[in-house]
């Protein structure tokens, strides 16, 4: 994998915790639509709504490793049992269902897309959001990541996700700070550490190594919350995120 390094202007971000004790307030979605939404779409729409507040239009990128896999699994079970499948359930089972519902609810015809890339979904979604924003920085980009563990029917999943949702609004004109992202191969990381060169991550020489987390979402959320470097590793590649205050 080629080593990459990019930086995102973060105007605001919102998260829905894994262990939330209450359901999200979905008053911004019409009741007839709200009743049909899965728990995954609900938390995704909630953080998206919070991040896009006050913006007439935003480009949306929705990312999820499994997406509406649980709904799809229910459909497959219905087919296997010879039962009819609800057209509504089918239409809401696709990966970009949330972005479609969000655009309709807002009356926003801006470009919307969806992305899935296995255990590295969130990392590549950040890269895609950067590419979209860099192409047209005059229009904000809203990245929405939401996921939940796969149905037990699929067995053990390598590098399985946690449940939860996270939204990040990219807009340099109102940036509270910048999120730096990088991928480093094992050899390059060892060389960098040996030279104590922390320039690319904003770390001072001699600083403690970044905390390492089991999932990308945990690492990124820690970075945004603690405003310090965090890592996620898979194979010979390390993904690292760091926060820089102010409009750098």
From TrEMBL:
Domain Beta-ketoacyl synthase-like N-terminal, chain residue ranges per copy: 14-242
Pfam families: Ketoacyl-synt_2
Protein name as annotated: Beta-ketoacyl synthase-like N-terminal domain-containing protein
